[in-house]
Amino acid sequence: MSDSNTTDFTNPSTFLLLGIAGLEAAHAWISIPFFAIYAIAILGNSTILFIVKREPRLHGPMYYFLCMLAVSDLVLSTSIVPKTLSIFWFNSRETDFSACLTQMYFIHCFSAMESGIFVAMALDRYVAICHPLRHSTTLTNCVVSKIGLAVVLRGGILALPFPFLARRWPNCTTNIIPQSHCEHIAVVKLACADIRISSYYGLRCGLFSFLTYQFGHNVSLHFHVLMANMYLLLPPMLNPIIYGVRTKEIRGRLHQLFIHKGT
Prior knowledge:
Blueprint: E1 14-17, H1 27-54, H2 61-90, E2 94-96, H3 97-130, H4 135-138, H5 141-159, H6 161-168, E3 176-177, H7 184-188, H8 196-205, H9 207-215, H10 221-245, H11 248-262
Parallel strand pairs: 1-3
Antiparallel strand pairs: 1-2
GO molecular function, one term: G protein-coupled receptor activity
Protein name: Olfactory receptor 52E8
InterPro entries: GPCR_Rhodpsn (IPR000276), GPCR_Rhodpsn_7TM (IPR017452), Olfact_rcpt (IPR000725), OR51/52/56-like (IPR050402)
């Protein structure tokens, strides 16, 4: 290991992302499913946005929230996959310290935002099922806009402490992150200070990741990394299918588009 990776420093200028440590020889093959997942996520979520924009009948609360989910999925997957693929394909492991913290913020911000969108979608379905006659008067465009703003602010505020906590701790052991992206827990574990505040906050906002790192000591590192990536990347791929294509109106519009192109 080079001296630049072991010298004492407070905030390194760069981090080194290892990708999937232990499986470097298979990075080219591993990149194939990563690229496929990303391509499906981009295509699926972009299709949802296109259909809802083009079809006036779909301009309602449920589809507005679905569009928010699609945008969230697009940003989340785009925050992770391009850098991951650059590691797999070009061995481009170095990332700027500020860029790493920015990626960390976007990942946690849009993950939190996604959970808020699901709550908003559940509220819409509750009103539609239990109070169908009052649905249009309860969830007006103004109310939907306020809910959407609250979801965005919640995600942004919840994720805001992550980069500040990570910047606060001195890193005095290494600047190597055994991950393919800048995850909060992975970054703060490099610190040589008391990180309990950061860990507790990570527990509240990223339970899966926290438990994986805390109790998965007997599991290989590459399994940790793969599970962390799948946890973040599979939902953006599956959400357009689960909440979009399976919706009767969107499925019908897709069918019309294909029939129109076929004729």
